[in-house]
Recover the amino acids of this structure.
């Protein structure tokens, strides 16, 4: 179900606020994105399948240590397949989306414009307005 125009504006405003207020978090999240390395996925799946084979061999030979080693290999292969790719080199700063003016610069609490302050302050202001007035 597509977002309404108001929901899209609110989402864009929240994203801009996140980029402005918590750039370290944004940098961390952007470093995890990227195209999956299909080679690493295939190697991880092959490692997991080898782990299953070792577990079955441990059960067939009634050797618990072989079974435990196979389980560890299975787990390592699965984690290797689903782990995000690591980038080489240094990461630059996260791109900051362009600023746009907020329509209707009404004053919120403390005489600030609605676009200023933290995202939580703006959300609290909006909640107070919906509840029938400013409580503070």
């Amino acid at each position: 179900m597509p977002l309404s125009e108001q929901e899209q504006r609110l989402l864009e405003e929240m994203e801009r606020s996140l980029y402005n207020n918590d750039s370290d978090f944004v940098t961390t999240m952007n470093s995890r994105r990227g195209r999956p390395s299909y080679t690493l996925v295939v190697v991880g799946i092959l490692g997991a399948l080898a782990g299953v084979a070792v577990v079955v061999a441990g059960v067939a030979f009634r050797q618990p240590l072989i079974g435990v080693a196979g389980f560890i290999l299975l787990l390592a292969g699965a984690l290797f397949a689903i782990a995000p790719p690591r980038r080489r080199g240094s990461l630059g700063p996260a791109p900051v989306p362009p600023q746009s003016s907020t329509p209707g610069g009404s004053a919120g609490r403390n005489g600030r414009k609605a676009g200023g302050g933290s995202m939580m302050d703006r959300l609290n202001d909006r909640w107070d307005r919906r509840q029938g007035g400013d409580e503070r």
